[in-house]
């Protein structure tokens, strides 16, 4: 872990279940490779994960089984370690590559900005040569305009210890927000392509489909159906992401799918036991029923990593892992990520507390930040509606130092405030309602409103509010306390208490439960409104990211505008404006 990171706290633990084929999975790490410095339960860093993987590979070798590492994209955007350098990612590529990942693919965040996709093609694809898979993604070479596969379409290989044959694919969901130097092909079309049809006719022991795709999303179901059509008994394993939740499901008795959260809070574990080699003659559904699948969501917590590897603080860390931790520390220092803009007076939550409310980060924005930053001095007296999508905020603010790192953690995007001047108020006032409530109408116009909100809400549609704190030690297979604290039951800290299609025993550490309050897709602030009556016209101000939705909503309200009618409202990215606001408004020292 990084120097100064929160000390890990012991928790009651569920053990890992090993099989013949075992996997460690990361997804949506979004630059959090230094770990969560302010949260004890997720404070291990990428160097610790390098040590963990090496120790677990050794365990696998000793037992004669196999361990593979998987990453399903969105490695970038969301943390100072990636976003604070100029150009972005200057330190990230060399840190990330230190992990020996066996199967890796692209997420949507690698593609929003053309230079990010260039960086992916120039650095990460060659860093993981032969292991990077792009089943439905092409790249356009800037110099020639030639369109080529981002990386190989699939990978066939044998595992190290048992020689298990694997055919692996790497997909991205049907993403349309990419810059024009990549082409994402819809999964449902790619599965009809000749190369895919040939690949699924390869005789293999197991298919592994990795993807930046939620495990409940249609893309995975389509891929599963097509592979299964021709391979009735072969196990098919899916590793997904994008939705930022811990999740697992089975599409049938010989398949299994898991997603491993977000922000390097979670290291997913999947194992398969049973007749995984063809030589073991799976010839009937009865044989195939012998497959056993397990999943575990490992908190990225050093004490947990020690526990699962059977090691301790003096035996766990490899030289390689320690070096990676040191490289991260050096990068953080050079980027001055601990520079403090101000001191947050309390915690502000995205989903842990209701919106509107005193502890909601969105209420803070709506009532305090936006009125100060959404000001164009030439038009400051013109009434305006300022609309901000909630997905633009990526993480909670914790009481205490708000650092350069926190600015990117809260708001990594290059979003700016644009505006359309003098919009008739009768139409402008309908926009927020359409963005928040007219999901069906907007979806019919191929503009899914849910893409303006936080990704978690693609999966969690209703608030989850617990009546009272859960009984810590109840439930299936009540757990033994972790490591060095003998028989004393540690008190629980808040964290994941996952319920997925497999059950509620997926998390490795037992936490106390956390409420999840669903928030609207967008929030709105009214500024400079006359007191007596409604204005005739207003300036409509909004993040550039939601411009297509805003234009569509205006059209539905009877006012047609195009991109040509939109111009910048305030100089500077939202990230810079927020940092400036904090410097002005929160005390400098904590
Ligand atoms: N410039 C941007 C880019 C993205 N968003 C929000 O992020 C969501 C996607 O997040 P994933 O990590 O799941 O890919 C997207 O739906 C937006 O809500 C944004 O606000 N601005």
UniProtKB/TrEMBL annotation:
Gene3D superfamilies: 3.60.21.10, 5'-Nucleotidase, C-terminal domain. Residues 22-245 form the Calcineurin-like phosphoesterase domain. GO terms for cellular component: cytosol; extracellular region. InterPro entries: 5'-Nucleotdase_C_sf, 5_nucleotidase/apyrase, Calcineurin-like_PHP, Metallo-depent_PP-like, Nucleosidase_C, Pesterase_C1039, YHR202W_N. The keyword Transmembrane does not apply. This is Metallo-dependent phosphatase-like protein. Pfam families: Metallophos, NadN_nucleosid_C. GO terms for biological process: nucleotide catabolic process. Keywords: Signal. It comes from the Eukaryota. Transmembrane segments: none annotated. PANTHER family: 5'-NUCLEOTIDASE-RELATED, SER_THR PROTEIN PHOSPHATASE FAMILY (AFU_ORTHOLOGUE AFUA_3G04160). The keyword Transmembrane does not apply. GO terms for molecular function: hydrolase activity. Residues 347-551 form the Putative 5'-nucleotidase C-terminal domain.
């Amino acid at each position: 872990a990084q120097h100064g990171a929160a000390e890990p706290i012991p928790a009651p633990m569920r053990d890992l279940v090993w099989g013949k084929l075992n996997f460690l999975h990361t997804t949506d790490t979004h630059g959090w490779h230094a770990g969560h410095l302010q949260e004890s339960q997720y404070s291990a860093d990428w160097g610790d994960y390098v040590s963990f993987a090496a120790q677990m590979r050794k365990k696998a070798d000793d037992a004669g089984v196999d361990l593979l590492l998987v990453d399903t994209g969105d490695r970038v955007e969301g943390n100072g370690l990636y976003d604070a350098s100029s150009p972005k990612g200057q330190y990230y590529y060399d840190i990330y590559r230190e992990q020996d990942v066996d199967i890796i693919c692209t997420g949507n965040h690698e593609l929003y900005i053309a230079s990010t996709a260039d960086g992916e093609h120039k650095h990460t694809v060659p860093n993981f040569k032969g292991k990077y898979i792009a089943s439905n993604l092409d790249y356009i070479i800037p110099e020639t305009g030639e369109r080529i596969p981002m990386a190989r379409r699939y990978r066939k290989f044998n595992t190290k210890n048992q020689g298990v044959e694997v055919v692996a694919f790497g997909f991205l969901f049907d993403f349309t927000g990419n810059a024009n130097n990549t082409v994402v092909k819809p999964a449902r079309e790619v599965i009809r392509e000749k190369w895919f049809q040939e690949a699924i006719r390869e005789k293999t022991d197991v298919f592994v489909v990795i993807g930046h795709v939620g495990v409940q999303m249609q893309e995975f179901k389509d891929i599963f159906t097509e592979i299964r059509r021709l391979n009735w008994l072969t196990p098919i394993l899916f590793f997904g992401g994008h939705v930022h939740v811990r999740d697992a499901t089975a599409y049938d008795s010989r398949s299994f799918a898991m997603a491993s959260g977000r922000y390097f809070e979670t290291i997913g574990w999947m194992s398969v036991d049973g007749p995984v080699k063809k030589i073991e003659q799976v010839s009937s559904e009865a044989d195939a029923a012998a497959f056993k699948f397990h999943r575990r969501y490992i908190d990225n917590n050093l004490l947990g990593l020690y526990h699962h590897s059977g090691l301790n603080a003096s035996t766990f860390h490899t030289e390689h892992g320690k070096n990676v931790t040191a490289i991260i520390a050096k990068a953080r220092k050079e980027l001055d990520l601990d520079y403090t803009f101000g001191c947050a007076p309390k915690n502000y939550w995205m989903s842990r507390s209701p919106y509107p409310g005193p502890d909601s980060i969105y209420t803070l924005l709506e009532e305090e930040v936006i009125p100060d930053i959404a000001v164009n001095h030439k038009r400051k007296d013109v009434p305006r509606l300022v609309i901000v999508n909630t997905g633009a905020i990526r993480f909670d603010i914790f009481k205490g130092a708000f650092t350069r790192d926190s600015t990117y953690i809260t708001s990594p995007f290059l979003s700016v405030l644009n505006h359309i001047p003098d919009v008739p108020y009768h139409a402008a006032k309908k926009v927020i309602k359409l963005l928040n409530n007219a999901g069906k109408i907007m979806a019919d116009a191929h503009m899914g409103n849910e893409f303006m909100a936080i990704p978690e809400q693609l999966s969690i549609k209703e608030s989850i509010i617990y009546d009272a704190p859960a009984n810590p030690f109840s439930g299936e297979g009540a757990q033994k306390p972790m490591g060095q604290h003998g028989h004393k039951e540690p008190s629980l800290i808040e964290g994941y208490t996952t319920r997925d299609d497999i059950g509620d025993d997926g998390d490795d550490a037992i936490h106390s439960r956390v409420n999840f309050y669903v928030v609207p897709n967008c929030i709105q602030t009214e500024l400079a409104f006359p007191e007596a009556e409604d204005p005739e016209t207003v300036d409509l101000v909004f993040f550039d990211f939601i411009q297509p939705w805003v234009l569509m909503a205006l059209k539905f309200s009877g006012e047609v505008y195009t991109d040509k009618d939109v111009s910048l409202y305030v100089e500077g990215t939202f990230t810079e404006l927020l940092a400036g606001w904090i410097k002005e408004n929160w005390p400098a020292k904590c």
